[in-house]
Amino acid sequence: MRRSLLILGLVCALPSAWGGPPALGENFTLADPVLPMVWIAPGTFLLSDPVGANDDTQVTLTRGYWIGRTEVTQAQWQTVILHHPWLKNISLPSYFSGASRPVEQVSWDMAMEFCATLNALERAAGRLPQGYTYTLPTEAQWEYAARAGTTGKYPGELDAIAWYDRNSGGVTHPVAQKQPNAWGLYDVIGNVYEWCWDWYAPYPGGRVRDPIGPAIGGHRIMRGGNCDAAAGWCWVAQRPRWPNYLKTRSLGFRLALAPARPAASPP
């Protein structure tokens, strides 16, 4: 059993050191890949619209969730994807090579395959909390966590928290080199854009609970800006969208462990 766990490399550290699921309300860390997960408590906030329309959408997230302290790195990607039936045969996709740099040049579909593989491993080991799955965050979950209680354009002073066009040198950097936001998340702005779960749609306005986006669409949301982005494209409210099959060196993802959702629909 010990050898099996070492091979899987996905045993959780405290509070899950004894092999059970993480406790709701507590941070935890996957051991290998070392992937710290931060608990985000339920709450209400305003989803911002960068173009000023429907900027009064009040979102209530009724259930807490975990989100990665950092973007998924190339080393973390490689450790999990070795267990995937066909992605394991594809060379590391990233343009900017480095174990602690964020993985990029992964499509939305590839990111979801990573999540599915991790779910299979953790489910087999009995470490998934009931009703939760590893997935991409919804854009509401992403923005709530990225803002960390702030209401401005950025969740901190831009040069202190982000790699963007004026300080990155046009390359990605190892994760967690800049200051975190108030909830301990690194690189929510800059370095690489991050895929979100949702198909793009205009904000509805009014009040919504636990939004997950439309059932079908043509483009998936990505958030957070990247190392080549100007400051205006790094606003926490910016919501560019690309096809789910797109792969580019400016786009990666951040893991969430969140309440299970309906299966993703094709474009």
Automatic annotation (TrEMBL):
Superkingdom of the source species: Bacteria
Signal peptide: 1-19
MF terms (GO), sorted A to Z: formylglycine-generating oxidase activity
All copies of domain Sulfatase-modifying factor enzyme-like, residue ranges: 37-256
Cell inner membrane as UniProt keyword: no
Alphabetical UniProt keywords: Signal
Protein name as catalogued: Formylglycine-generating enzyme family protein
Organism lineage string: Bacteria, Pseudomonadati, Verrucomicrobiota, Opitutia, Opitutales
